[in-house]
UniProtKB/TrEMBL annotation, chain A:
Residues that, per the record, bind substrate: 245-252, 295
Functional description taken from the UniProt entry: Synthesis and degradation of fructose 2,6-bisphosphate.
InterPro entries noted in UniProt: 6Pfruct_kin (IPR003094), 6Phosfructo_kin (IPR013079), His_Pase_superF_clade-1 (IPR013078), His_PPase_superfam (IPR029033), P-loop_NTPase (IPR027417), PG/BPGM_mutase_AS (IPR001345)
CDD domains recorded: HP_PGM_like
Keyword Ion transport appears in the UniProt entry: no
Record-level GO BP terms: fructose 2,6-bisphosphate metabolic process; fructose metabolic process
GO cellular component, one term: 6-phosphofructo-2-kinase/fructose-2,6-biphosphatase complex
Domain 6-phosphofructo-2-kinase, first and last residues per copy: 29-238
Protein's recorded name: 6-phosphofructo-2-kinase/fructose-2,6-biphosphatase 1
PANTHER family, per the entry: 6-PHOSPHOFRUCTO-2-KINASE/FRUCTOSE-2,6-BISPHOSPHATASE, 6-PHOSPHOFRUCTO-2-KINASE_FRUCTOSE-2,6-BISPHOSPHATASE 1
Subunit: Homodimer.
One GO molecular-function entry: fructose-2,6-bisphosphate 2-phosphatase activity
UniProtKB/TrEMBL annotation, chain B:
Gene Ontology MF terms in the entry: 6-phosphofructo-2-kinase activity; ATP binding; fructose-2,6-bisphosphate 2-phosphatase activity
Family: In the C-terminal section; belongs to the phosphoglycerate mutase family.
Active-site residues from the entry: 239, 308
Residues at which substrate binds: 238-245, 288
SMART domains named among the record's database cross-references: PGAM
Lineage: Eukaryota, Metazoa, Chordata, Craniata, Vertebrata
Keywords: ATP-binding, Hydrolase, Kinase, Multifunctional enzyme, Nucleotide-binding, Phosphoprotein, Transferase
Protein's recorded name: 6-phosphofructo-2-kinase/fructose-2, 6-bisphosphatase 4-like isoform X3
One cellular component (GO) term of this entry: cytosol
Underlying gene: LOC103358721
Natural source organism: Stegastes partitus
GO biological process, one term: fructose 2,6-bisphosphate metabolic process
């Protein structure tokens, strides 16, 4: 094209400017999220059993999916269990060390941008097989090796995650511990860590002693750099994260969205109840974070401790729909209202934001939450849904419909590979601001210019 | 006030109170990039709002000695030389203490070789006495080509060698490096395991990171791991003139005017003539930057973070209208344009925070053209040219002009190319009278002409 397009049009859902409507998005020149990486990447875990490989794999996978990078994790232990039906003792795993071969590599497809291969991968031969497999497929490879020789950490690890494992479900604890330690020795005999000299051409990070020291070699691209940054910020110190919305606001009472109003009388009551609740929890060194909006700050003021304001925690910007009721939106912007219900995660308000935009702006908050220990975050409905989706590994589809009612504190405590959630309703009545996912009907769209029947609008994805 | 508006550092386990200042200490033989890293890191930290200052001991030595004779000064058996060097280090540390404890600095970068364990021990003790955290940044490199390139780029032009020719300078400098080599004790994984540090090997091929204790150290490590020294150029420009520009209206999401479209064509020609290898093109998600990029006929990426500053209630207004409807806001903005936030909008300070990931990715990239907006371009330019928060909102970023930035030595070369297509001027200087009681005439004194 040698001339400037006379005009661009804006896609209705994402509000992205494109040269012409319906242009094939895969070939479209502008991409609405920065390209993280060009070719699929294989992340390969390395390390003896009970070194946190599965913990890291799951956490990393959860983080990458949340920031919008399709990632899948493959845990070889699971495949082994399926293959060997009943796990008798460690002899079995010794045999499978050799047989643990190409069958698992075949499941790796390029549907996902990132695939995490969670296994011990403790021998040079094993890693060489993976490297040549990746080369054949045109994948990049990034190794994550976890090295730890602190017996206390290892024992704690075994207790936390192994004893719940299907392998040990019907076993006595001491017997199980003994068996597992034998299993580790089995691998240790043949363990060759990544060699800083011989393997200097590989891309990898070595994590020593749960993050006390890191060795990073040949980071190739943006996504590997983000992965390294993430891994260097996570920790395993026990702590809890408290998520709560601001107390009920004046606009909440009027059924209006957005805005920057103060607390209603019930909202103020909640703020005091929250303060009492926090005191009763007897938390050491609690940090309190709020947004820059009046209602969260008013809520935090009642708690009576130092708090930090983050603009990134502000509620989703509803653009032209700010301070409207849902009825007014339906009346004035019926098409927008329908589009939002079709894809609430990606839908962007005119002159506003989408949930997808929210996730992007909350990423530094998540990174800092990972660094922190005990934190109370006083935020907003859409923001809280995004944060919760990160901790509970909810997909983009479910995120905008997560339940985050007013006057309820969620206490998240990381355990084993996931997160325990405790919900505390502080017994102060409030309006309900949750809008369920509506059933899509034939008559939703009033745009008669579209030749397509309205139901197929559901399947058109303007991403 | 209990709430603090800026997310601060700390997840401190140390004895220090929260927000205790940080002393960054460089380690390494001469010509390993310590000063390059110090200056770049200082520039980055100041840009993101962390008051930082670098203290180069070599500077102190030059002030003390007045005239540099030869490498003999650095010989390990030169008692007189050692005495002076120790004095200079002490003097620099005193200034560090002044900056961090008295002047409100948050980070100090102590730029010297610091190649012996003994010297580093002295610094650690100094930091402990004053309640500073210490983070070491060691640069290790044995590639003779990199070192030679280094010497040519920054040493030949140094005040030390002003009266020498290149060969003499290089020879002397190599001997200078030799003086340090025999006593060099790199940071050791075992002996120094309780220290917080990053060891950068071979210009970033490999890193060893030990005991990062807080947020600021984590950010520093992330930054250091993303910068590179591969030669490249960054092209910054605004979208072509827009319909709202012509009307003297700010913000909005309008398309290009006829002259703006003309500019897009000239931009394409300019880019083709520059013959740039593997050029990446970035735009915002606003119509006017995308229209400009579409004309280039190359793939481009849209970043929402590159969108123009949100003027909130003042969106799409003329300055005359802002003065009419919001005279108080208009005056407050002139009083502190960097920190002023439009009602329901953003401030330049907010912009910098949302542009930080863009800067981080710009550091990772090589040749790149960023098509953005006036306020956004001012923020990016301030980062590359080390402009203060006071200067930033008044940097000149006219329409239809491309800035080509090429990193050179310790800074950035700027070439400004006006592409010969007329446009309105959108630059508003700070008026003389910023008092909230000022007259309309005074308020509108510096508003540029429009249709």
């Amino acid at each position: 094209m040698s001339t400037v397009q006379e005009n661009l049009t804006q896609t209705p859902l994402l509000k992205i400017w494109v040269p012409w409507m319906g242009c094939n998005v895969n070939r479209r020149r502008g991409s609405s999220v920065p390209q993280f990486c060009n070719s699929p990447t294989l992340i390969v875990m390395v390390g003896l059993p009970a070194r946190g490989k599965t913990y890291i794999s799951k956490k990393l996978t959860r983080y990458l999916n949340w920031i919008g990078v399709p990632t899948k994790m493959f845990n070889v232990g699971q495949y082994r269990r399926e293959a060997v039906k009943i796990y008798k003792n460690f002899e079995c795993s010794r045999k499978s060390l050799k047989g643990e071969s190409h069958l698992t590599l075949d499941v790796l497809t390029s549907v996902f941008l990132i695939q995490v291969f969670d296994a011990t991968n403790t021998t040079k031969e094993r890693r060489a097989v993976i490297i040549s497999f990746a080369k054949e497929k045109g994948y990049k490879v990034f190794f994550i090796e976890s090295i730890c020789d602190n017996p206390e950490i290892i024992a704690e690890n075994i207790k936390q995650v192994k004893f719940g494992s299907p392998d040990y479900v019907d076993r006595d604890i001491d017997e199980a511990m003994e068996d597992f330690i034998q299993r580790i020795e089995c691998y240790r005999a043949n363990y060759i860590p990544i060699d800083d000299e011989k393997d200097r051409k590989l891309s990898y990070i070595k994590i020593f002693d749960v993050g006390s020291t890191y060795l990073v070699n040949r980071v190739q691209d943006h996504i590997q750099s983000r992965i390294v940054y993430y891994l260097m910020n996570i920790h395993v110190t026990p702590r809890s994260i408290y998520l709560s919305r601001h107390g009920e606001s004046e606009l909440n009472l009027l059924g209006r969205i957005g805005g920057d109003s103060g607390l209603s009388p019930r909202g103020l009551k909640y703020a005091n109840a929250l303060a009492a609740f926090i005191r009763s929890q007897k938390i050491t060194d609690l940090k309190v974070w709020t947004s820059h909006m009046k209602r969260t700050i008013q809520t935090a003021e009642a708690v009576g401790v130092q708090y930090e304001q983050w603009k990134a925690l502000n509620e989703i910007d509803a653009g032209v729909c700010e301070e409207l009721t849902y009825e007014e939106i339906q009346e004035n912007f019926p098409e927008e209202f329908a589009l939002r219900d079709q894809d609430k995660y990606r839908y962007r308000y005119p002159k506003g934001e989408s949930y997808e935009d929210l996730v992007h702006r909350l990423e530094p908050v998540i990174m800092e939450l990972e660094r922190q220990e005990n934190v109370l975050v006083v935020c907003h409905q859409a923001v809280m849904r995004c944060l919760l989706a990160y901790f509970l590994d909810k997909p983009a589809d479910e995120l905008p419909y997560l339940r985050c009612p007013l006057h309820t504190v969620l206490k998240l405590t990381p355990i084993a590979y996931g997160c325990k959630v405790e919900s505390f309703f502080l017994n102060i009545e409030a309006v309900n601001t949750h809008r369920e996912r509506p059933v899509v009907s034939f008559h939703i769209c009033h745009n008669r210019h579209l030749a397509l029947p309205t139901i197929s609008l559901w399947y058109i994805n303007y991403v | 006030m209990r709430g603090s508006c800026h997310p601060k550092n700390t997840r401190d386990r140390a004895v220090c109170m929260t927000n205790c200042p940080t002393l960054i200490v460089t380690v390494g033989l001469p010509a390993r990039g310590k000063t390059y890293i110090s200056k770049k890191l200082t520039r980055y930290l100041n840009w993101i709002g962390v008051p930082t200052k670098e203290f180069n001991v070599g500077q102190y030595r030059r002030e003390c000695l007045k005239i540099y004779k030869s490498f003999e000064f650095f010989r390990p058996d030169n008692e007189e030389g050692l005495k002076i060097r120790r004095q200079c280090a002490t003097s620099a540390l005193n200034d560090v203490r002044q900056y961090l404890s008295v002047e409100g600095g948050q980070v100090a970068v102590f730029d010297a070789t610091n190649t012996t364990r003994e010297r580093r021990g002295t610094i650690v003790k100094f930091a402990e006495q004053n309640g500073f955290k210490v983070f070491f940044v060691e640069s290790v490199c044995e590639d003779p080509e990199v070192i030679a390139q280094n010497i040519v780029q920054v040493k030949l032009g140094s005040p030390d060698y002003i009266h020498c020719n290149s060969e003499e300078a290089i020879e002397d400098f190599m001997k200078r490096i030799k003086c340090y080599e025999s006593s060099y004790q790199p940071l050791d994984e075992v002996l120094d395991r309780d220290l917080s540090y990053i060891k950068i090997m071979d210009v970033g091929r490999r890193y060893l990171v030990n005991r990062v204790v807080d947020h600021i150290q984590s950010r520093i490590v992330y930054y250091l791991m993303n910068i590179h020294i591969t030669p490249r150029s960054i092209y910054l420009c605004r979208h072509g003139e827009s319909d709202l520009n012509i009307k003297g209206r700010i913000g909005g999401d309008s398309g290009l005017s006829a002259r703006g479209k003309e500019f897009a064509k000239h931009l394409r020609k300019f880019i083709q003539e520059q013959n740039i290898k593997d050029l990446k093109v970035w735009t915002s998600q606003m119509k006017r930057t995308i229209q400009t990029a579409e004309c280039l006929g190359a793939p481009y990426e849209q970043w929402k973070s590159l969108n123009e500053i949100d003027a909130g209630v003042c969106e799409e207004m003329m300055y005359e209208e802002i003065q009419e409807h919001y005279p108080l806001e208009f005056a407050l903005r002139d009083q502190d344009k960097y920190r002023y936030r439009y009602p329901k909008g953003e401030s330049y300070e907010d912009l910098v925070q949302r542009l930080e990931p863009v800067i981080m990715e710009l550091e990772r990239q090589e040749n790149i053209l960023v098509i953005c907006h006036q306020a956004v371009m001012r923020c990016l330019l301030a980062y590359f040219l080390d402009k203060t928060a006071d200067e930033l909102p008044y940097l000149n970023c006219p329409l239809h002009t491309v800035l080509k930035l090429t990193p050179v030595a310790y800074g950035c070369k700027v070439e400004s190319v006006y592409l010969g297509v007329d446009s309105v001027n959108t630059h508003r200087d700070r008026p003389e009278n910023v008092n909230v009681q000022r007259s309309t005439e005074d308020a509108l004194q510096t508003v540029p002409a429009h249709f």
